[in-house]
Amino acid sequence: MNHWSMMVCPHDTAKNPERWFVFAQYLSQNLGELGGSPVSVRFQQSLDFAEFQSGMAAADLVYANPQHALLLADKHGFIPLVRAGNLYDEAVCVTCAECDAELADMHQSSVATVTSMLVTQVALQSLARQDVKPAELKPVATWMAVVQSIYRGDVRFGILYKDFYAGMSGLSRKQLKVLGETQEHSVYHCFMLAPQHVAYFSRVRQTLLDMAQSERGGAILAELSMQGLLPVDSGELEVIRALRS
Questions:
Q1: pTM to 2 decimals?
Q2: Superfamily for domain range 2-87+188-244
Q3: What is the Cα 74 distance to its own chain's centre?
């Protein structure tokens, strides 16, 4: 028996992580034999990003956000497999609920954001096309820290990962006002395969691509809000890499 571990970006396991246990079970039942032995895929949940980052390079299969996908490819030789055809990493620009402000007011203003995350670059790219250029970015460690900076009045504006904002409680969202939302469709989470399994790349990719064609596989993807999976090749990561530079 080949035992594989699968790790998933913590943002995608914060709610209903059992969906990923079912996903791993599906792979175990459908990958068949690899190297003459059946494969058992185990979902290894990370409690936070520190745990995820410290362990992802040792996993066999990783569902990674854009910057972690680049890190896995560039430093550890991981190979991109597939991505959800309908999901992209987007940003929302926010201010305090009572603030009398519009998106254009972010121009030459101080903006709090997690500068290490590529979705910040997605937002800046979108803003630049609207002739909005912040005077400075106030770097913080987490998306919640962006929200707290606005609550405290440290800054008037913030850039948030759209999925983080959507996952906030209704009460928390009521304390913010959304000024704009990106529709760049340029970066995304994707599944990455460890380099020691390169011989099984085609089998693993095809198993993932075929999920949407079966009733059970399609239902599992739907639970993850994925409308089918699309192949990703190394060249497509160049678009993401260009944003980082």
A1: 0.91
A2: Cypl, domain I (3.40.190.180)
A3: 18
